[in-house]
Structures are given as structure tokens and as C-alpha cells.
């Protein structure tokens, strides 16, 4: 068989001498044999990608004899064999014919009777005519010679009798391409720094990109983002508005001071908080009147509070940090709400906000803790809300999450009073496990912002990682985030349903991710 290089040379020289190749069927290897079309198309594709040739495909039906058809073309039809076996004078005994012709005897007899070539005479067969024309053999020979038959009806019958089968012949019509040449230039696949440096890129030819391959796979939501979508759905169903959480770097002011968290609070300590080194301080502060009210309430109190009684320093509030909770965003939004109320002539509009985003804590990393994680946070601001509203709302919210029985335990946050931790009963562990934290924002925080004393704000927060790990059956946080994550785990996991049990969901003791 001709090598692809031989075929390439053959195609290029033929094009060079004849201008075009009408049908690659006419191409023959040096030894005169035809060239298989698969070998031709391989070479054509490679030449076409270099724009050296252009080609179109020619499809043609051809009829070939089957093994039985070839046998008929060579030695006659079954019926002719039968006729020839019948002696012109004495005929032949039926039993004798079967012995002589085997399978042909049975098939041939019927046809020979029908053609009125022979007849029965007792237990013998005798001739009815003295000579015959074996049309079946002639038909087979015609097909063998021309690849088809002049009579469409005969062709159909030959196919039905399985003497002939149809095959598709593929060949090509080829013309010269814009870059036709007898020699093949090596094309570069990449533009290199060297080519740019020595200027050779100007004359170098480049291999074209092939965009016809497999289309790239679509993206997949990370499990954390799948669970996030479920939480977002719950919030949207309940009429909440999403807060802008795109500020990972925040000032201590919004993360701590606006939340009435004292400047010497241990949580601000560099052990828990990542402070920025460069730039180290924030410059864009809200109006100084508000900042001064914050200073006043921390130092000396106000709005019914005695304050912390320490010397509040703006330098401390200016320190930039990676936000330690999304409550920094909530404090910012509540301040905006007070500004809007003012702009609205003092008419307060109730608000429901939520956010789900990343926060950072300078903590020891272990199987269930990283120095960064996601918080789900909800805030409701309305006049005269009570602790009963918070409890009632938490029951609705956690029921939607698929957690029907919750309990509350008093807790402490510098910015909420009262504060409550939220627990749910874990049937596998037979104990109450903590789900989240909640509370009513302090008047020291809200009134300082300029909100009316009767505007109350209830808020709560919970982690996103724990429900995600439980839902997707992961017991090590490193399977969820970081370089050990299995991409297949991300691609093949289903969407999350918070209100339904999922396939690999962790149950019993495994579900405790604290
Ligand atoms: N900020 C709290 C935390 O980081 C959660 C919380 C939000 C608590 C709102 C009360 C009110 O855990």
C-alpha cells in the first residue's frame, strides 16, 4: 500500500500537472492499485488545513456481487445447472439430481420449472426445450462489469435474491488551494519569545487553530455555591434583598466600632483578625458627625447606655482588615438605611437584607476549620420588633431549611442584646447541636447611626460550610476547599435540596462538623 507521503506527492504532482483532480478514483498507486479513500482523505485534510488544496466529497452508490452472485457469474445460475444436468435424451432421476447438485438442485428446480425448461416425467426430470439462455448469469456478469445494471427492476431483484449488495463509494474532487505548492512548509504551532526577538514571526507560517473539536465543557457550581443557591432561594422567597458583599477588605470601623465592639475586645486581637500591612489604614470614612457619635457612645455612653468608659481612638477604627464577619456589611447597610430615612423626610421604610459570602479568621486550621469560611446572614429592620419576632422568624427560616425543631440559648455578642444561639436536636447523636447565632442589635449601635429608637433590628448568622459538608457527605474541609479537592466531586454532585435528604448525606456522629 502506498504511504501517506507517496499519496501526498501523487496528489500534489497531479494537481500541478493537471490543474485539478476531478475524481480521486482516478488516482492509482505506483503498482496500479487504487488508493483507499480513508488514506486519501487523511492526506487531503492535512493539505487543506495548510490551505494547499480544497476538496469536495463525491458519494456514489455501487453494486457489488455477493459471494453467491460471483459464483453465479463464474459458473451459471442454479436453474441453469439443473437444466445442464438433465440429459437431452434420457433426462435424470430426481434422486440423482440432488446427489449431483446438492443445495443448487432444490433452488434451481423451481426456477427451471417456472421457466418451462424442464418437466417431471414419473420419478425423472426431462428437458422441455433443447437450449436455454442463462439470463441470471448474464445479469450477474453485467453487474460485475459495470457496478450496476441497466434495468432498475432487475437490480432490485438481484438485491432481493442477495446476489448483489449496495455499497457507498466515497471519493473526492480536488483543486489547488491559495497556498498550493509542491513542497510542504513546516508550520509553527506556537508563537515563541525567540520568534518575536529575532523577527522570524513575520515570515513564519502558523498552523491554524482547529475549533471543530470537542466543545469545551460547561462550568460547574462548587457545592458551597449550590448550597448558597438554596439559601438565596429561601431568602428571596421571604422577600429579602441581597446585600453587596464585594468588600473583603474592610475598616475596623464597620467590622467592629460601628457594631459597638470595644477597641480592646479580644476578637480584635491580631490572633483572630488578619490586619492589612499595606495599605494599613482606611481613608474613606462616613460623615464625621456619625464617627464622633460612635466615639462618644463607646467612651461615655448615650441612648440609655453608660458606654465602655475608655478613650476611643480613630487610629484603631481606621485599621484595615479582612472582614471577620459579614455583620460588617450589615452595619454599613443599616447606616445607609438611616441616611435614606433622613433623605426621605424621616419616613422609615422597613427592610429585609441578607448576604452569603466569605469571611476570614486567623485561626488554627484543622479538619473542619479553615482561616476563611462563608457566613449566611439575615437582617430585618422594622418598628417595634421584639424577641418574639426573632424567635418566630427563626422557626420559619430553619423549617424552610429542613430543620423543624430548634431551641434557643442565651449568648453574648457585643452588638446584640439579647443574643441567642440556635440549636437543633440531632437524632443520631442524641444531643442539641449549634446551628447559628442571633440577636437584636443594640440601641448603642442603631441610634448612633441615626435610626429612630422604635426601629428594632433582628439579625442572625450561620456558617455555610457545615450544612454543605453534611449535605455532600464530606467529613474533611480539605475535600471541599483547597488543592486536595476532587474536580469530579464538584462536577458530578447534584444540586442541593435543603428540605430533602440527599444521597451521600452524613448522618449520625459523622454529621458533626464543629
Ligand atoms: N456575626 C455573628 C458571627 O460572626 C453572627 C451574628 C450575626 C450574630 C448577626 C448576631 C447577629 O457569628
Structure description:
This protein has 18 helices and 15 strands. The mean pLDDT is 90. The chain is of the alpha+beta class. The strands form 4 sheets. A 7-stranded mixed beta sheet has the order 7-10-11-15-14-13-12, sandwiched between helices. It has a 3-stranded antiparallel beta sheet with strand order 1-6-2. Bound molecules: phenylalanine. Phenylalanine (PHE) binds at residues 325, 327, 377, 413, 416, 437-439, 459-461. Residues 325, 327, 377, 413, 416, 437-439, 459-461 line the site of phenylalanine.
Q: What portion of the residues fall into strands of 2 or more residues?
A: 15-25%
What is the overall silhouette? elongated
Structural classification: alpha+beta
Distinct ligand kinds: phenylalanine
- Report the count of strand segments: 15
Strand order of the largest sheet: 7-10-11-15-14-13-12
Distance between the termini: 70 Å
Radius of gyration: 44 Å
H/I helix tally: 18
- Estimate percent helicity: 25-40%
Mean pLDDT across all amino acids: 90
Poorly predicted tracts of residues: none
**Biggest sheet, open or closed, and with what strands and sense?**
7 strands, mixed
Enzyme class: ligase
Keywords: Aminoacyl-tRNA synthetase, ATP-binding, Cytoplasm, Ligase, Magnesium, Metal-binding, Nucleotide-binding, Protein biosynthesis
EC number: 6.1.1.20
Pfam families: PheRS_DBD3 (PF18553), tRNA-synt_2d (PF01409)
